[in-house]
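User: I'm writing a tutorial on reading structure tokens. Could you give me a worked example: one chain, its sequence, then its tokens, then a sentence or two explaining what the tokens reveal?
Assistant: Sure. Here is the example chain.
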Amino acid sequence: MLVAILTNSSFLGIPLLDTYLPNDNFMPYLLVYDQLGTFLAFAIYGTFIVSLYTSKTKVTFKLITVKVLTFPPFLTLIFALFLVGVEFHPTITKVLEAFALTTVPVALVAAGLQLQLKLPKEDIKPFSVALFVKLIFAPIIAIIICKIFGWNNLASTVSILEAAMAPMITAGAIAAMAGLAPRLSSAIVGYGILISFVTTYLVKILIM
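And here are its predicted structure tokens:
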């Protein structure tokens, strides 16, 4: 319920979109999709799922609200919004850029280290369903919605490709740390990344 729903819109999305759309200014649309779409969904829905299955107390609206508002990435997003348009000293910018460049490799290595080549039989079905929902069903729904509303521009292309991305690494990490089928969660994320290189390319061919 957690890993199969949320998409890897930044760690994997940025390099893949940069490959698929090298001449397009896709970054503004990706940032909106990632920060105001995927991230908020993760902060609200992800927190709800984790709280629902791990909290020893009754899950209430107040509990979810407090957890969302005190969620570190959410606080960082709010803080970043206040810094829009602020120019930093070049040295600070270079340091932040250096840290940013390590994000994708570290995230992919972390997912790879947890990857297991062989899954128990009881994990095969939820594993298959999760990857089907994330890599096939989600982009199909995105394509249908764009067709219904007649959206045929860069924003819709980015949205469809993002919907086709692999499961979110952070969601897998949170699920594992919360004890929500850690082996299965890691497998869904790890194999999802590998398979998504093929499925996203096929989606790209389909819509472009």
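What the tokens reveal: The CA atoms of residues 69 and 78 lie 10 Å apart. The chain has a mean pLDDT of 82.
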